[in-house]
Amino acid sequence: MRVERTRLDGLLVLVPEVHADERGFFSRTFDDRTAAEAGIDPRSFVQDSQSRSRQGVVRGLHGRGGTGEAKLVRCARGAVLDVVVDARPGSPTFGHWVSHRLDDVEMRHLFIPAGFLHGHQTLTAEADVCYRIDAEHAPEDDLAVHHLDPELAVVWPEPITVVSERDRAAGSWAHLVSRLGG
Ligand SMILES: Cc1cn([C@H]2C[C@H](O)[C@@H](COP(=O)(O)OP(=O)(O)O[C@H]3O[C@@H](C)C(=O)[C@@H](O)[C@H]3O)O2)c(=O)[nH]c1=O
């Protein structure tokens, strides 16, 4: 498994080998040693989760207050455009976002450290996204910024079909910045 850095310091892309043959493929979804070498504590993860979304669905942009949460994200079925926003006050890339395609062909994963917002849009008829998270779910600590926030101006490639009620009601980036003191 290879690790690529991104222009957001700390955000990593993990690129596994995909061994394809006439049966299908085999690919590693987690590698303790690679994680440790990349500075990820392999023992830190406490919950694994999976979501399924139909084409055009947007989930996010979500983060967590306090000490935040780090996550490993991959797309086990179909494809998504995964968006990560730097929400670390004082970071030189505060307010910048990057997007990566995650799919069931290249099987790339993202390691998203604490202090980022995260969201994705489904690019295929359905997509399953799997997470490993280093903190227990705590809805009272949830942070959310609207996926169409004009300042962030995230580009979602597909027409947006469904968004949760919570995400439709999410506040602005400016509001989060004032809350974070950024
Ligand atoms: C995230 C989460 C949700 N839930 C429950 C709450 C709710 O009833 C249902 C759906 O939750 P949500 O609408 O928050 O799910 P969703 O919008 O998919 O939330 C996810 O979005 C992406 C972008 C992320 O980065 C994830 O960390 C997570 O925030 O599942 C849990 O029990 N545990 C969890 O860890």
From TrEMBL:
Active site per database record: 62, 131
GO terms classed as biological process: dTDP-rhamnose biosynthetic process; polysaccharide biosynthetic process
Any Pfam family matching the protein: dTDP_sugar_isom
EC number(s) on file: 5.1.3.13
Pathway(s) this gene product operates in, as recorded in its UniProt entry: Carbohydrate biosynthesis; dTDP-L-rhamnose biosynthesis
Catalytic activity: dTDP-4-dehydro-6-deoxy-alpha-D-glucose = dTDP-4-dehydro-beta-L-rhamnose
SUPFAM superfamilies the UniProt entry points to: RmlC-like cupins
Domain of life: Bacteria
CDD domains: cupin_RmlC
GO molecular function term, any single one: dTDP-4-dehydrorhamnose 3,5-epimerase activity
Keyword list, A-Z: Isomerase
Membrane as UniProt keyword: no
Function: Catalyzes the epimerization of the C3' and C5'positions of dTDP-6-deoxy-D-xylo-4-hexulose, forming dTDP-6-deoxy-L-lyxo-4-hexulose.
PANTHER family: DTDP-6-DEOXY-D-GLUCOSE-3,5 EPIMERASE (PTHR21047), THYMIDINE DIPHOSPHO-4-KETO-RHAMNOSE 3,5-EPIMERASE (PTHR21047:SF2)
Entries under NCBIfam families matching the protein: rmlC
Complex and partners: Homodimer.
UniProt record similarity statement: Belongs to the dTDP-4-dehydrorhamnose 3,5-epimerase family.
Protein name: dTDP-4-dehydrorhamnose 3,5-epimerase
Gene that specifies this protein: rfbC
